[in-house]
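Changelog-linked ticket: alpha-D-ribofuranose example.
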Amino acid sequence: MSTARKVIIDTDPGIDDAMAIFYALESPELDVVGLTTVFGNASTDVTTTNALRLLEIAGRTDIPVAKGAVRPLTMPYRGPVEFVHGTDGQGNVFLDSPTTAVASSDAAHFIIEMVMADPGAITLVPLGPLTNIALAMSIEPSLTDHVAEIVLMGGAAFVGGNASPAGEANILNDPEAADIVFGANCPIVMAGLDVTEKTLMTTADIARLATFDNPTARHVASIIPHYAAFYRDRLGLDGIHVHDSTTISYLIAPDHYTWVEHPIRVDCGHSFSRGKTLASMRVSDHEEAWQRRRPVRILTDVDDRAVIELELGRLAG
Ligand code: RIB
Ligand code: CA
């Protein structure tokens, strides 16, 4: 019997999402049992098309794709980030249309069906706004009693944001949903900017990746230049932050990380700090709003060369 951990990846592909999905598919420690899609880096129509195409490229059309929410819970979609991910969400390579189709269930119901059919076995790996997970929790309030763990990319506990001075993009794209998810009754790991901005895949690493001779690495090598140009031109970096892959590295090699554990609320106000992930750090002082929440494992540091080598090794095939 396989001991691989069953994961559903909830995603808005997205260049770093594509890397994380392929990394997971190449990792025997993980069994990807579904992809669910959400708006974020691009519209849900685009991210769903990309999810289907990515699985075709990987030769894994056996994995179902369930289409998710097209907008946040309470506000309009903030729109695509073409300057980071391209108008197609895949670095403007404009993939052919997929030949496969989405599952009959929407993302929230797919998550509920999978978790309730296999209680305690499924780990959720959200790589985009948390709308689908929050919807699933609202439809089935006992859902997170039966989720093994949520390991999410999002948030910024002790550093500034990347979509606003306070807000990380995935959280700022649906703060109300994120605040629901951080109240989930299961272990939660937050791979936010605190650690993902310490994880740099350098230009030299990317040049190495471009020599890998397999379909998934070739696709990644074709989409990274658009992403790398953003990091070079806007941030002056010699490489890229591999935000979403951090969830996969943590799942397969947690010893490369350090963390602290505190309950989190998300600022859902409509002022400058909207979308900030607020960790309550003094146990005796917890405000009532934090008191009934489980502590979230907030990743704070990483052996970044070790995890980049791990990812490159898996993408090499
Ligand atoms: O802030 C980084 C996150 O925003 C990543 O998930 C990236 O794909 C974008 O969605
Ligand atoms: Ca993402």
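Closing comment: Example verified and attached. DSSP finds 13 helices and twelve strands in the chain. The pocket of calcium ion (ligand 2) is lined by residues 12, 14, 16-17, 40-41, 127-128, 244 (CB under 6 Å).
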